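ok trying this again, last paste got cut off
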Amino acid sequence: MDLKLKIWRQKNSSDQGQIVDYDIKGVSPDMSFLEMLDVLNTELIEKGDDPVAFDHDCREGICGMCSLQINGKPHGPDAAITTCQLHMRKFNDGDTIYIEPFRSRAFPVVKDLVVDRSAFDRIQHAGGYISVNTSGNTQDANAIPVNKDNADHAFDAATCIGCGACVAACKNASAMLFVSAKVSQYALLPQGQVERKKRAEQMVAQMDAEGFGACTNTGACSAECPKEISLTNIARLNREFLNSKFN
């Protein structure tokens, strides 16, 4: 396939940035999207040009690093996948593809397609942990009974990889789906009960401090989530937050 790429290029966080056109030829439909960008970067380097900076790590849909806005959609046109799992067969010969970084005040651009998502780390530091007694009298985790429904819902929430697609999809750049997944993961399990009342309050406060917007209730976050995190987690977060205020 021969494609025209329109890629956001930005030298650093203070640069204004702009869309730059690139033509790429002979793209195999079996390539992943990131492999296609690798080919482009090889061509740019051979010509002495600066390669396009983009985040990647595992390339197996687990790490959440490959945060690209492709033709206006987080992770591109396919559903329930990350960018590294997107294959070029989803596009047609001659297509024009727009590639931009995730857009959010809380995710400032570092360079080109790379954004700083450390805001997510700080939210987790605010409450995404459990107290563990390491005195030598700890109870084996497998010995603690857990309701099957709670365990299933906690596991579903724990599949969140923190990629930020929910933020990129939301017109208010809200992080509610991410925060709710991290809160739900612990709220449903016995190990998470010690910090339960303050966890939601602290994580929501940090979310607001980072500059994320309010929830829009449109469901765009869950619709674009590569791990299909359910909106029911946001309802749970709201309950946990209210309980932290009144109990």
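PB: full thing came through this time. The CA atoms of residues 162 and 178 lie 7 Å apart.
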